Amino acid sequence: MILATMADDALPIAHLIQLALAPVFLLTGVGSILNVLTARLNRIVDRARLQESRWAQANEAQRTEIYRILAALSQRMRLINWAIGLCVVCAVLICVVVAIMFISQFSRLDFSQIVAGLFIGAMAALTVGLVLFLREILIATASVRIGIDDIKAPSGH
Asked: Which H, E and C letters describe 61-127, residue by residue?
């Protein structure tokens, strides 16, 4: 009889853990996105430092090009910083959602509207962060000069 009561008491917790798994998997995905964003930020910082180190020895034409590159890198850095911030906000909101789900189970209070609002906020932060990431990628690809115009195409192309 005691075992049956303990099993009955464990069912709501088991169900709650199942419900909490979806946000936890989402949190794993957001963590992966943050990893990509910080790697890009590190790459931008490295490129900016390289350009800044070239400044002192550069002539006027080279300084114009360095300035153009640094301006694009600065814009990309701002976008990535905002994207990282918004993805961190998303992760924090997801953590709060999971915590409130457990609190509501034990307190028997209805926090469903709060959970829904926090989850919508998390998705909004993630969406805007990803849009900023896309914008950064577009700037990065637009500022790359491959030099294809300087290469003569092989005959027949």
From this structure: HHHHHHHHHHHHHHHHHHHHHHHHHHHHHHHHHHHHHHHHHHHHHHHCCCCHHHHHHHHHHHHHHHH
